[in-house]
Amino acid sequence: MTPVTEVAAAVLLRGHAMAPEFLLAQRPPGKVYAGYWEFPGGKVEPGETVHQALVRELQEELGITVDAVWPWVCCEFTYPHASVRLRFYRIHAWHGAIAPIEHSAFAWVKIGEPAGVEPILPANGPILQALELPPVYALSNAEENGVEAELQRIERALAGGLRLLQLRDKTLAPAPRLAFARAVMALAGRAAKACVLINDDQELARTVGAHGLHLSSQQLWQLDRRPDFARVAASCHCAADLTRAAQLGLDFVVLGPLLPTASHPGATGIGWPEFSRLVERSPLPVYALGGMQAEMLETACHAGAHGVALLRGWR
């Protein structure tokens, strides 16, 4: 079996929350894949944790000291010369002036726009797509709030910058759900970069022209291939679900329930320690779900989440 090299990789982020930028660095002459662009970082040395390797590599490569680090996704990739396990971290705060000490150059790239630099290391391609996901995934709740009130809530949220919404409401009758979905898509069409996923109903998603599909954990195991939508997500409750979602090549998942919820007040949820353990090796971005509030976003990111999925806690 080919040994796997452990690598710490940094996604340095700066700028406004609505239009952040990330850093790419160019590999210097003399190295494998010289001239390719990559996220800075490097191999984990014997006796180091991945976090320690990240801190050391950024000091050596860019001359900076990190102040805040969020664990993120973990991807494995096999190059002709080596197999690597890349543990990515998101970094929003550091001190020191960035300099290409061990690279030929560096460039700041806006999330969601063409990188403008090429070629990019093959292992980094999925990371560029994952970075486009916003920190909040809102779930509709027309069943509880009423359709008209929920449409008003969605309209306000989209005007305020909401970009990722799941049309849930599985117990609505087919005709009201169809009308609700059409109304939501009309609202989303007037919002910049808004993405709407339909929960568990491929026919409805295609009928209304939704941007994607959100699978229940049951549907996750009934499919043998990824559905043909631009965005596909799934609900996960355990390690096996997370593995299955990755095997199907989904874009992201939600994991929970994390904390007690209004829907299930007697259930304790998996809690933050177990959440961190489950997502530690996930190649897919994971949203924390269950009892979440918007102010819990930083806590979720420290635990390895991409963001939070909110049913009641969004406006």
TrEMBL record:
Gene3D superfamilies, alphabetized: Aldolase class I (3.20.20.70), Nucleoside Triphosphate Pyrophosphohydrolase (3.90.79.10)
Chain segments annotated as transmembrane: none
Keyword annotations: DNA damage, DNA repair, DNA replication, Hydrolase, Magnesium, Metal-binding, Mutator protein
Record's catalysed reaction(s): 8-oxo-GTP + H2O = 8-oxo-GMP + diphosphate + H(+); 8-oxo-dGTP + H2O = 8-oxo-dGMP + diphosphate + H(+)
Enzyme class: hydrolase
Superkingdom of the organism of origin: Bacteria
EC number of the protein: 3.6.1.55
Gene Ontology MF: a single term: hydrolase activity
Pfam family, one: TMP-TENI
Cofactor: Mg(2+)
Keyword Metal-binding attributed: yes
Domain Nudix hydrolase: 3-135
Family: Belongs to the Nudix hydrolase family.
Protein name: 8-oxo-dGTP diphosphatase
Organism of origin: Candidatus Accumulibacter phosphatis
